[in-house]
């Protein structure tokens, strides 16, 4: 892939990939960071990207793995602070309100990943299986469970229910 082809690839896909990673991570700034880091790594492998199944899938996979690694470091850091006896910092908005972002973050990682790839990235089950290295049956199971989990949070008009019975 030449420099011009890579620049064109970046321009065409950076926003889409950032949106996809945002759905997977639930943190827009984190999504931006991991997508940029993945593109930096892709630049070093640009000659090989032409031979892969698709450069966008390669960047998405690298970005997802970077996000998981960062999340694991954050969890280890929090555990270390708790062991030290320091008070925890409160996170985010009122935990009583349930919104779609929080519902997605509450899903197991594989369900969230499969749902994001299917509904946001619009990838077929077979391609999701190839990217995640899961069988197609396992991907379908994760999608079924993700839909069932989200269905309990949505009413017939597609609005998200809150924990106090209200609607957003």
TrEMBL record:
GO terms for molecular function: DNA binding; sigma factor activity. One of its GO terms (biological process) is DNA-templated transcription initiation. Gene3D superfamilies: 1.10.1740.10, Winged helix-like DNA-binding domain superfamily/Winged helix DNA-binding domain (1.10.10.10). The keyword Transmembrane helix does not apply. Residues 99-148 form the RNA polymerase sigma factor 70 region 4 type domain. Residues 10-73 form the RNA polymerase sigma-70 region domain. The keyword DNA-binding applies. Keywords: DNA-binding, Sigma factor, Transcription, Transcription regulation. NCBIfam families: sigma70-ECF. Belongs to the sigma-70 factor family. ECF subfamily. This is SigE family RNA polymerase sigma factor. It comes from Streptomyces qinzhouensis.
């Amino acid at each position: 892939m030449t420099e011009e082809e890579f620049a064109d690839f970046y321009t065409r896909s950076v926003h889409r990939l950032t949106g996809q990673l945002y759905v997977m991570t639930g943190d827009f700034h984190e999504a931006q960071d991991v997508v940029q880091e993945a593109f930096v790594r892709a630049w070093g492998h640009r000659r090989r990207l032409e031979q892969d199944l698709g450069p966008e899938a390669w960047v998405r996979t690298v970005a997802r793995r970077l996000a998981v690694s960062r999340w694991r470091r954050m969890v280890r850091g929090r555990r270390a602070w708790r062991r030290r006896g320091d008070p925890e910092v409160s996170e985010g908005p009122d935990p009583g309100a349930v919104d779609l972002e929080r519902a997605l973050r509450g899903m197991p990682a594989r369900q969230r990943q499969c749902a994001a790839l299917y509904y946001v990235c619009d990838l077929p089950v077979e391609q999701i299986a190839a990217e995640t290295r899961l069988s197609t049956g396992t991907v379908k199971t994760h999608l079924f469970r993700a839909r069932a989990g989200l269905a309990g949070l949505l009413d017939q008009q597609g609005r998200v229910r809150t924990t106090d019975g209200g609607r957003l």
